[in-house]
Structures are given as structure tokens and as C-alpha cells.
Specification:
- With 491 residues, the protein is of the alpha/beta class.
- The protein has two domains: 230 residues, P-loop containing nucleotide triphosphate hydrolases (Rossmann fold); 232 residues, 3-Layer(aba) Sandwich (Rossmann fold), CATH 3.40.50.
- Helix content is 48%, strand content 13%.
- It is built from 20 helices and ten strands.
- A five-stranded parallel beta sheet has the order 2-3-1-4-5, sandwiched between helices.
- One of its GO terms (molecular function) is polyphosphate:AMP phosphotransferase activity.
Length: 491
């Protein structure tokens, strides 16, 4: 028995059976939806795929009618535009994720390249496996972050598909629903079915399951769709251990970085500083205005202890750039909207397009730094975040972005000196807060967390530049030098 045998038998449900089932189902769906809205602890993502003519569109309309459409967002994705292709592949899907308590229905999902490759006459198995692995990782992270994923494949027999397509095309009021490609499906039905079976088998997991929906009979299709969605709304799903989300460290051959091993005496005198600063700023200014730079998205990440000089270093970088070219993004505690989505969601929204620069003053590393130390994140959340961050940064690099990560480090004594200077300076007093003093009491915990960050996320593709910053002049010049050399190499 094959995956689609039951659906290709084109089962039917008598009208007198469907009506009482529908009435009961609609009530149950509304009740379950409102419970989900009130709890607002998870969201539901429904992926609609299937053979053309199987009823995806009708099912989406049905769900919006049977439930409260105010808490449902239906999203349709066409083939990636030229602009879409300038960003990492999953970016546009991240941007449309549902907030906690809500439901999203997705057409034209991240599955399109997988199914298209599998349906070729001579498919590339390595490409298929790569697509499947990326999808499994993406969906695993979504579920771990509170987004429930249900995937519906609408299927019917070859004869039923052709019949339905012919009927829709013959009626002027429904002909618009049929594309030229839909009319040819019956000719390559076997290949499309086999491609679907392969894609489904590679991406069917307990936490993001596929459900096959018989599509030939409208009543059965509607009832089955409603029952699957109701079951998902009632289910309390948790992801178990998964090979795609782990906490493996960077290979041991990569250099080990520890804050206590830095040379904090590194310094520049004023004359040397002025000459070096002018040199590297001029080179960066010329690079940022070159034709080649128009094709490069540049992402700069700044982390470090409080009062380590991140703001001053960032200002020396932005001084060389056109104001229309960069976006400096200070990261603070997440807003309610951001808390209603996976923690990487707000960073996906700020990825720069080619020719632009995104500068993060603190970043996605908050999950494994402040959220870890202050216990805002549960241990399983921050422990798996290292691998999630590495995967996120790999997607940025694979799409053509240059990612540079800087940690500006000061000693505990130097930080205390800067804190006291801020308290007495009318120009800097706004920079010091009670939270800074509170964080200082956890110096050792933050140092341990930082060293773990370097051990687990200092990858060859996205290495950390950990710079001693007791002397601000030395740190600022070092930042600019690293940026210029990396951009020159990238171009």
C-alpha cells in the first residue's frame, strides 16, 4: 500500500452524514480557537500543499468561514522575486509567522523548491536532501519556539483531477482558478505523485506532521480538514531530542578564545590613533561607495560588557557611511509583539539588502548571554540556541552577506572606573543605570556565558573578533581595520 492509495480511491461522504458532522465540528473549532487565543502561549501554522485541483483554496476559505477570521491570517507566496533572492531563502517566511494565539494558513510555502526538484525528470538527490534538511531544521525551531506546524497535502486520483480541472475551466465563473500548468497535471501525474511522496517522507516528523486529505469529494475534504485542524488545536505538542538542534561546540581545531587571556594593556598613543583612524576610515568610506559594494549586504554585530565602548566604536564606523546606507539597531528587552514570536524573528526583520549595512548594538546573542544569566530563558532554550544561531548566521553567509562579530572587552576595574566617570559627567550620566550596577554583580556569570559563546559560535565562516578595549583608541582602530580587511576580501 502506498502513501496515496486511500486518497486516490476518491472516497466520498454522503450529504446526510456531512451536515451533523459539520455543525458539531464548527462549534468545536471555534471553542478550541478561542481557548488558543485566550492562552496566547502557542500559535498554529497550517501549510497547504497538494495536487492542483485538490481543493487547497476552498479549504482555506472554509477554515476562515468556520472559525473567527480575525485571528487567522492567510498568506500566499509566489515564486521569489528578485528582491527576495537578495536575502536568505527563509527570510520572507520568518516575516509572516503568526503571533502567539493566532493561526496562519500558508500557500506556496518553503516546500516549493523541494517538490519542484523532486518532480524533475532527472532530479538531483543532493539538492533534494539539502532542501529537506533545511526544512526540518526550520520547522523544528518553530515548534520549539511555540509555533505548532501542521502540513496538509490534498490529493485525488488522476482521473478525478482531470475531471475537476475540465469542469472548472468550462465554467466562465470558475475558469480563473485554472492555470495553464494545471491543465497539464494529468499528463505527468505519476511523476508529481512520486515527487510528493518523496518530499513528504523526508519531512514528516512527529512535531510537524503531514496529513493526506482526500480531495475528490467536497464534503469529505471539508470534514477531514476541520478534524485535522481541531486535533492540532487540542494537542499539547513538545519536540523531543532532535539531530538538527543541538549544542555542539565549534570543532576543536578552531582557536579557543577566553576573555581572561586577552592583552588588556594594548594601547595607542594619540598621534598614532589619529593617523590610523584617518587611514582606516578613508578606506572604509571608499569601499562603501564602490560599485562592487552595491552587491554586498554587511552585518556588524557588537557585543561586550557594559561601558566597553560599543557606542563609540559604532560611531567611528557610521561616520564613514552615507546615512541612507546604514541602519544602527540598538537591541533592548523584547516588546510584547516580539515576545509573541520566536526570538530570532525580530532579527530576521532587520537583515540588510545588498549595498546596505545593519549594525547591531547587542544582538541575537542575548539569548545565550543576558537571558541565560538572568534566567529569562529556560535552560533548554539557551542551550539549543547556539546551534540555532550558527544556522542563522550560516544562512546569512550563504545568501551573500558578510557577517562580522565584535566583542569589546574591558577588565572589571576598568568598567568600575568608567561607571564612576559616567556618574560625575553631565554628558554621560544618562548612560549609567541601576541595571548596570546590578549586572556588574554577576560579572563571573557573564564571563562564563561569554566564553561559552566563543566556544560554541566562533565558526570559520562567522568568527568572533574579541578585542581588548581598556584603551578605547586601540579598540576603535582595531574594529575599523577588521571591517576594512574583511570587506576588501569579500569584494
Amino acid at each position: 500500500m502506498t502513501l496515496f492509495d486511500a486518497a486516490e480511491s476518491d472516497p466520498r461522504l454522503a450529504g446526510e452524514q456531512a451536515k451533523p458532522l459539520e455543525a458539531k465540528l464548527r462549534t468545536a473549532l471555534l471553542k478550541a480557537q478561542y481557548e488558543r487565543v485566550q492562552k496566547a502561549d502557542r500559535s498554529l501554522l497550517i501549510v497547504l500543499e497538494g495536487i492542483p485541483g485538490g481543493g487547497k483554496g476552498a479549504s482555506a476559505r472554509l477554515l476562515n468561514e468556520w472559525m473567527d477570521a480575525r485571528h487567522i491570517r492567510t498568506v500566499a507566496f509566489d515564486k521569489p522575486s528578485r528582491e527576495d533572492k537578495a536575502y536568505p531563502y527563509f527570510r520572507r517566511y520568518w516575516q509572516k509567522l503568526p503571533a502567539s494565539g493566532n493561526i496562519s494558513i500558508v500557500f506556496g510555502s518553503w516546500y516549493q523548491p523541494l517538490f519542484e526538484e523532486a518532480a524533475r525528470k532527472k532530479p538531483d538527490q543532493a539538492v533534494i536532501q539539502a532542501h529537506a534538511e533545511a526544512i526540518r531544521h526550520f520547522e523544528t525551531m518553530l515548534v520549539r519556539e511555540g509555533i505548532q506546524v501542521v502540513k496538509l497535502w490534498y490529493h485525488l486520483s488522476r482521473d478525478a483531477q482531470k475531471r475537476r480541472t475540465d469542469e472548472l475551466r468550462a465554467n466562465p465563473e470558475t475558469a480563473w482558478q485554472v492555470s495553464p500548468e494545471d491543465t497539464k497535471v494529468w499528463k505527468k501525474f505519476a511523476r508529481l505523485r512520486d515527487a510528493a511522496a518523496l518530499g513528504i517522507s523526508l519531512t514528516n516528523t512527529d512535531h510537524a506532521p503531514w496529513c493526506i486529505i482526500p480531495g475528490a469529494d467536497e464534503s469529505l475534504r471539508a470534514i477531514t480538514t476541520g478534524q485535522v485542524v481541531l486535533s492540532a488545536l487540542r494537542r499539547n505538542l513538545r519536540v523531543q531530542s532532535d539531530a538538527f538542534v543541538g549544542t555542539a561546540a565549534v570543532p576543536s581545531s578552531h582557536p579557543v578564545i577566553r576573555l581572561e587571556d586577552l592583552d588588556y594593556d594594548a594601547a595607542l598613543d594619540s598621534n598614532e590613533y589619529e593617523g590610523q583612524m584617518a587611514k582606516w576610515q578613508a578606506r572604509l568610506a571608499n569601499l562603501a561607495r564602490s560599485k562592487k559594494f552595491e552587491k554586498l549586504p554587511l552585518i556588524l554585530v557588537f557585543e561586550g560588557q557594559d561601558a566597553a565602548g560599543k557606542g563609540g566604536a559604532i560611531r567611528r564606523v557610521t561616520h564613514t557611511l552615507d546615512a541612507r546606507q546604514f541602519h544602527a539597531i540598538p537591541i533592548s528587552a523584547p516588546t510584547p509583539e516580539e515576545l509573541a514570536h520566536p526570538y530570532l524573528w525580530r532579527f530576521w526583520r532587520s537583515i540588510p539588502k545588498p549595498g546596505h549595512v545593519a549594525i547591531f548594538d547587542r544582538s541575537w546573542y542575548g539569548r545565550v548571554l543576558v537571558e541565560r544569566v538572568e534566567k529569562y530563558a529556560k535552560p533548554d532554550q539557551w542551550q539549543r540556541a547556539y546551534a540555532e544561531i550558527n544556522h542563522f548566521e550560516a544562512q546569512l553567509r550563504d545568501s551573500g552577506a558578510l557577517v562580522l562579530k565584535f566583542w569589546l572587552a574591558v577588565t572589571k576595574d576598568e568598567q568600575l572606573k568608567r561607571f564612576r566617570d559616567r556618574e560625575t559627567s553631565p554628558f554621560k550620566s544618562f548612560k549609567i543605570t541601576p541595571e548596570d550596577w546590578r549586572n556588574r554583580k554577576k560579572w563571573d556569570a557573564y564571563t562564563l556565558a561569554a566564553n561559552d559563546v566563543f566556544a560554541r559560535t566562533n565558526t570559520p565562516a562567522c568568527p568572533w573578533h574579541v578585542l581588548a578595549a581598556n584603551d578605547k583608541k586601540h579598540a576603535r582602530v582595531a574594529v575599523l581595520e577588521h571591517i576594512v580587511k574583511a570587506v576588501e576580501q569579500a569584494l
